[in-house]
Amino acid sequence: MSATTSERGILRQGTELLRGLLPEGWEARSEAFTDRNRGEERGDGSLRLVSPDGDEIGFLVEVKRVLNRRDLGALARRLEGSTADALTQGLVMARYISPPLQESLRELKLSYVDMTGNVMVTARQPALVLRDRGSSRDPFRGPGRPRATLKGEPAASLVRVLVREKGPWSARELVARSRVSVGATYRVLEYLQEEELVVRTADRRFEITDWPRLLRRWSRDYSFVDNTQTYQFVDPRGVSSLLKKLAKENDPGFRYAVTGSVAAAEWAPYAPARAAFIYTENVDEAATKWRLHPVDTNTAEAANVILGEPEYSVVFDDTAQADAGYTIAAIEQVAVDLLSGPGRNPSEGEELIGWMRENESAWRR
């Protein structure tokens, strides 16, 4: 076996990675447990980091060739139960640990190392932090296997349905409601099950476990800026003037949807919006209809209108009408646009999710 396919190889290679990150004079020593000395409640090995003064930091190591979210609960319980000694801590090593799993391990207060160089190892006494960044994609994933991502139109359509509409669902129902192919539906559902965002019920239907966490996960792979062709404009009279013009828009053949801070204010006002973010099928037509001026890059003029032509039309599904009469995107679309937006947008997104939690019957069907 290669060093990245055997547990002993992963432990050995992970130890070498840590040696390269340690301060001068420190040593890293690891031991792989055998079946005889592992025991039911022990990990796969141990690691000791030794300072120049002889102080030691002990880690109980769990090694996983492939780490999935469903492994985390049992793994954390095993390490917690085996590290009652305050000087011994839990450490996870794997061939690859995805960014979402890295975040989960940090929340569980577990250190980790993967073979691509993603490292976060912390110790309380003596105080030590080792951190490095490796690959954000799994280089060991073979051809034909689903990618660990929620990028693309099938994922966007399915996430929107799963968040907005209560389950449980059969696969056939999800295919019909999302208008996504059978193959793509199963690929997305398989990934969501790996991330423990969707579970199978006793009658083999699919049910969402935590829609806020699903929105946050989707926001890693989707954003207004990355999934639209964006153009910056100025309405000389400001955002409020633009919204009045939008409210008068009565062309049924022209689709648009306001998102971001302006739309979120319908449910959870946060702060006055500095700019309006708007999905539109035709930027040139929208700019002409609404009498917008392109931003002059030679001046210090700041855009107060961002128009985006979306890669896929799901952003126009389930739109609503604001009290003032203009069209706004569905609340779950607005939430993900804020979570993945710049500046204060993520905080606004969390504020909106808080409102959604407290008023679920008002938007979720």
Indicate the CATH class of the largest domain.
Alpha Beta
Any idea what the shape is?
A: elongated
The CATH architecture name of the largest domain reads: 2-Layer Sandwich
Structural class determined from secondary elements: alpha+beta
Oligomeric category? single chain
> How do the SSEs run, as a string of H and E?
HEHEEHEHEEEHHHEEHEHEHEHEEEEHHH
- Gyration radius over CA: 25 Å
Average pLDDT for all residues: 88
> Which residues form runs of ≥5 with pLDDT under 50?
36-41
Proportion in helices: 25-40%
How many helices? The count is 14
Cα(first) to Cα(last) distance is 51 Å
- Count of separate structural domains: 3
Secondary structure tally: strands: 16
CATH topology of the largest domain: Beta Polymerase, domain 2
Q: What can be said about the biggest beta sheet?
A: 7 strands, mixed
| Major beta sheet, strand line-up | 1-2-3-4-5-6-7
Percentage beta strand = 15-25%
Please give the structural blueprint:
Blueprint lengths: L6 H15 L5 E6 L2 H4 L6 E6 L5 E9 L4 H14 L5 E7 L4 H9 L3 E4 L4 E5 L4 E5 L20 H12 L6 H8 L3 H13 L3 E3 L5 E3 L2 H8 L9 E7 L4 H9 L8 E4 H5 L11 E5 L2 H7 L3 E2 L10 E6 L9 E2 L5 E2 L2 H9 L5 H14 L1 H4 L2
Parallel strand pairs: 3-4, 4-5, 12-14
Antiparallel strand pairs: 1-2, 2-3, 5-6, 6-7, 8-9, 10-13, 10-14, 11-12, 15-16
Helix pairs in contact: 5-6, 5-8, 12-13
